[in-house]
Amino acid sequence: MNALSITLEGLGKSFGKQTAVEDLDIALPAGSFLVLLGPSGCGKTTTLRMIAGLEDPTAGQIRFGDTTVANGDTGASLPAEKRGLGMVFQSYALWPHMTVQANVEWPLKVDRWNPSDRRARTSEVLRMLGIEQLAHRYPAQLSGGQQQRVAIARTIAPRPHVLLFDEPLSNLDARLRVETRSELMEVHRASGATSVYVTHDQTEALAMATHIAVMKDGRLEQFGTPEELLQDPQTAFVAEFLGSPAAVLMEGHVRDGALRADDLVLQNNPSLPEGADVQVMYRPERFRLIPAGETTAGEDSPSVAPAPEVLVLESTPSAGRYVVTVRLGEGLGSRRLSLVSDRRVLVNSWVRMIIPATPDALFSSDGSRIHA
Amino acid sequence: MSARTFTARHLLSPTTLLAVVVLVVLGVLVAAPLASLISSTTPRAGESWSDGAWLDVLASPMSENLFWTPLQNSLLVALGTALLSTVIGGFLAWVVVLSNIRGRKVIGVLATLPFALPSFAIALAWTSIFRNDRVGGSPGLLASLGIDIPDFLAWGALPVTLTLVAHYFSLSFVLIAAALAGLGGDLLAAAELTGASKRRVALQIALPAVRPALLSSFLLAFAEGVSNFASPALLGLPVRFQTLSTRLYGAISTGDVERGYALSLLLVSVAAVVLFLGNRATRGRSFAVITGKASRPRVIDLKAWKLPVTVLSWLIIAATTIAPLLVLTATTFSRRANRFDDGFTLHYWLGESDPGISQGMAGVFRNSQLLTATTTTLTLGVSVAAGAVLLGVLGAYVARRTRITPVAASIGFLSYVPFLIPGIALGAAFIALFGTGFGPFPSLYGSFAILVLAGIAGSIPYAFQTAKSSLGQISGELEEAAVIAGAGTGRRIARILLPLSARGVVGGAMLVFVTVIRDLSLVVLLVTPATPLLAVETFRYASEGFTQHANAITLIIAVVSVTATILARRLQGTQRPWAN
Known about the structure:
- By secondary structure, chain A is α+β, with helices and mostly antiparallel strands.
- Chain A has helices spanning 44-52, 100-110, 115-128, 144-156, 174-191, 202-208, 226-231, 236-241; strands spanning 6-15, 18-28, 33-37, 59-64, 67-71, 85-88, 162-166, 194-199, 211-216, 219-224, 248-255, 258-261, 264-268, 277-282, 288-291, 309-318, 321-328, 335-341, 350-354, 361-364, 369-370.
- Chain B is mainly alpha-helical.
- The longest helix of chain B has 36 residues, at 63-98.
């Protein structure tokens, strides 16, 4: 399978005065699976539609391999149907007046496949997605999950070089979503096509992607592998958006030579200027919870380790450990934090939370990473 | 609670009592008139079918003239109306929803206007332009300019069909535009991504996907074409081009009631079969609603076709909306009917009675009979709107609350039946029932009450549907919360349901008002000089050659209708998904 690399260079799109996407740079190797991730309105769907050719960029370039398919600066654009791609829509976009078989076969007919190849390929993809028994039904007679499979079958049947997915799982229930997710990855492996997948669900992104591009307000926050994004987030937004639970961020400021959060000393002698306001990041699994009465002695807690008492609000078992939500402080200034604990703690009890001695990352108040 | 007390409570509950009242009223308004139409054409004791009206109508030397030719004409007109309305409405829907021509939003608004006009407005405008001297009277604009108008253009099937199309294409437009917009852009984008040409996408994807809307538009326009009275009466009757509706009007108004009733029943069967088939064919087959969120329709760049498509769209709009209104307006100011070379005058609007003009008829604003007609028309409109909506709301409420399924089903059925009955046949049924008095009812013929009752009967399908959908938008839990709070039925309706559904219901009432004041076919058989109505006066003036007066009244009705329609749509927040 001759997959293509996809390159976005300075890509931008504005609708009138409104900017939807700005200055996007992504270099995606051939055959990889890119997830465009971000909250709604961040420009991820617009980006996908530009790659598809359903929207024309107003700035920058899109290249498939060495071919420029859209150039926002000159206005040149290869029509969508000439880009050799397939797309799965959020609404599935199945043609309601055609049977499943006809839906899958029609693109091949348009592509002038000969009848016997066409029929062979159609039954091949229907079998691949386990829906061959539905071949003669109409879309309205199918459940959401079945419609989704038909949409996927129709998209991969003509063997596109590039596969695009616009939030394809958002209309499915939770269990079906996980199931279809792994099937989609199989489809990706089998086809070898370079894939771009839009979602706002970070679990989905971490499970499927070889590469993730996190977007916010039309701009790229960070592009990298899932591990890079988790281990080395470049912005506070990425740190808070990814992971279950996500990294813990605390507002801190430097006063009297110590990094403090309110009256809590987080770190003495930080390499930060006096008076700086920062966001302090800790990975959730590095916290420890001990009963309120116990001392803070332990291997991970130097003498000054801050260990405030916190109220346990929730404790959810997860893969042999517990995701614990606690409340720090009282009244209006109180904050909720979600951490990972090895031991079970009682909801509504007070415990002592041992904060790691060194933060995992620091961000300036505008969200950008401060490298020590 | 024992079974007996449960049943007793059930039977005496306010909902059940209300259900009984609603069913009785619907029975009197819908079932009884139809039954009486049937019974007055069936042979009484001692008679046989062979002396009855049915034989005359269906198999006698007269039946060719009485039934078969009018049937043929009706079907011909209906077929033409259905085909052209669907093609033109579909074309404009495609232009407004999917093309990128300039001014498509304006076209979208104007294309919905003709349906708010009285259907005789366009027929009158047509006579003002194309009338020739075949039946005497003042010829139209073109003839007075010395242009010879052939009969087929002035009278009969062609003008009747075209004026109906100018009215009903609007309905097709709304149906098809909604379906196209509901498809969502993804559906078409998915087809374009395969590399199929625009033509292929249009013919193999877009068109088949809105097939249900095309079919229902075709059948609705067909049924309207079969049953319309005004157009064939104005453009056909003078040259004895008869359709079923003009034929049954002729029979009943000349005292030949039994044959008239038989014809009414035949007309009802034709219309009902078509509409019933339409309902069945499209039920549950709305392709638009599948899953997922709809996406913005993708606009097609017409490129070189832009200009021709724009011109054609505006020509259609001009011919169906702008031109008729202009012609109607201009002619009311012309001194001599349909001529602009003899000078202009305000006489037909404001003038005092002058024996030299129009046999001494004063201008429409000075004419006491017209002022009476205006008052009667508005009173009728308000009474019918109030009555129909009240009945609709109560019916919809009962149908929603009752746990006795047959009751809900009967209310639904009886409220739907008048939709299948052409207005003029419903009018005939009311004469059959109330013309002579029955049971506790005195003869109502010639009274204002019969107009109100018939109006309510004719409007109940719409009023019921509106009330049902307005109430349907209110979650049942809101009412259950009130039940738990201890509120009784009346209080729940008054304090919870009505305030929440008020916009939809008031909007529905205004649309009922509009259909009543511009309606001709339902009332034309029921009106007497004691109860003059504007639409009927227009029809009378037009038939007697008082062109300016007829056109002036039509304009007044048109202005009121259009204003009320726009207000009502605004109140209901009518979705025009294609307008975004």
